[in-house]
Specification:
Elements lengths: L1 H8 L1 H26 L3 H21 L3 H21 L5 H22 L4 H5 L11 H20 L1 H9 L1 H6 L4 H23 L5 H4 L1 H6 L6 H26 L3 H14 L11
Length: 271
Amino acid sequence: MHDFLFALSLPPVARGLVAMAIAGLCFPASGVMVLRLNLVPMRYMLMHGVILGGALSLAFSLPVLPTSIVLNVLLVLLMLHLKGNSSHGFGLASAAAMVFSMALASLVMHVWDVPAKDTLQLLWGSPFALDALDIAGLVAIAALLVLYLVLGFRTISAMFFDQEIAQSLGMRVKLHHTLMVLLIALVIAFAMKLLGALLIDALLILPVMVASKRATSLKQLLWYSCLTGLFISTLGYLLAVATDLPPSGTIALLSALLYLAPTSHKKGTVV
């Protein structure tokens, strides 16, 4: 117990706990957007984009997180451009952007002699590697997400119900769709820093799927998802510190077990 408390008193561990609590509480809200707007293909595209961000960071000695954020935003804008200028759907536009990012990452690693193993290590995040600036950025993105949900809840609810009806009511559907996609890109960039690209669903998707077992309205889904994310992220992190296991794997396993656990409540209908 003494060793556990001592570990929590260490600045990197304490910052990690704060970061996981903030991310666990706020990031599942973006997971609701991903599922309700059917943006799962975009999630995969942004996961592959982190490899390009890592390659550029190592090649030009740039900070990884800001580089990943900028790249995610650029990839989203590219994807929206491809979708708007073709008859193909969102999934194919995401696939095209994903291929572009992987091809560019391969060229960067070859031309600037970036070791592939160093780039691929970025697929595994670590909350212990965060500094004070990272925490400030995380707080800012979480605040943006919450502010947008509060101010735009009426439009968001209408879009989740039916985008054509929302458009007919005079709501700016295209603008809000773009804003939600950009917010998701920012969240995914930070989630990759915390857990890594391979386990990002532990913060974004699984809490929403757990909450959907009970929620019967959009408000309930958002609240239950965020509270579930807070529980999973903090408990998983504390268990990882106590047992000297990787936080990302521990949190992901806890998410999966919670989703697979049987429930006696009637299944919700909002996801």
